[in-house]
Amino acid sequence: MKAIQLVTSQPAVVLAKAEVAKPSPGKGEILVRVHAAGVTPTELIWYPTSYTKDGQPRLRAIPGHEFSGVVAELGEGVQGFAGGDEVYGMNDWFADGATAEYCVTQPASIARKPGRLSHAEAAAVPIGALTAWQGLLDRAKVQAGEHVLIHGGAGAVGVFAIQLARLHGGRVTATASGKNAAFVTQLGAEKVIDYATMPFEDVVREVDVVFDAVGGETLEKSWSVLKPDGRMVTIAADAEGTTDERVKAAFFIVEPNQKQLAEIADMLDAGKLRVFVDAEVPLAEAPAAYERKVQRRLGYGKVVVVVS
User: Is 10 helix (H, G, I), strand (E, B) or coil?
Assistant: First the structure.
């Protein structure tokens, strides 16, 4: 099958087109014919991309761990899905991803594709929506009336975080670029702070929850705007190896979840949630997408590789 592989990570990350063996599903696994895969550029520097679960160097990884496609083959013992089912979801970070014609996943990591969405739109959902859900609802347990500060409001995760916070009664302040202020307001933010012109810490106080998708100095300054009993959640890659106990407690990595994916699909089909595809590129242009070198259509949302 055709695929995109990480051929080297030192001194720079390089992706290249490749012909590789089509995978076969093992016991309890599902083979998916990929129609589209979401692009998360930072994935190329994550630990599972370059190492196996037991810490050995991992070579020629296929990136892209969120996708939409069709069930091509069922492994032994799989129930609840059938060949030809349209599905969307994720697969294991240490497995080969979906920037390829086929990928292998677990039944618990996928759900039926939202019927109203194209495959490209559906592929832009899983990581962003699940991250927002697990960060805001599972970890921070946002309550109606609480003030939520969302950093990176126009990003692939931020667009879902704003919508979910509002759907659960939160009052949202978001940081974003000035050009995306109107869009972020339309998503439900009551206040939008242009991070390039206005220090958020000068205008925000007594926040119940901070949802950070930026990291670095933004994360560090966010502690000062929390209430004494406020909750911090961060997904910033630079927080993964921290020794700061506060950051360790705040950091998390999204996990596949079939039940949540099914609920998210229902919300998308009902029009309660919206997804935004910033650009669609063919498989051959996936390396450029990971290098952030493709022309963006919107300036917010997700870039998607259309495989089939």
Answer: coil
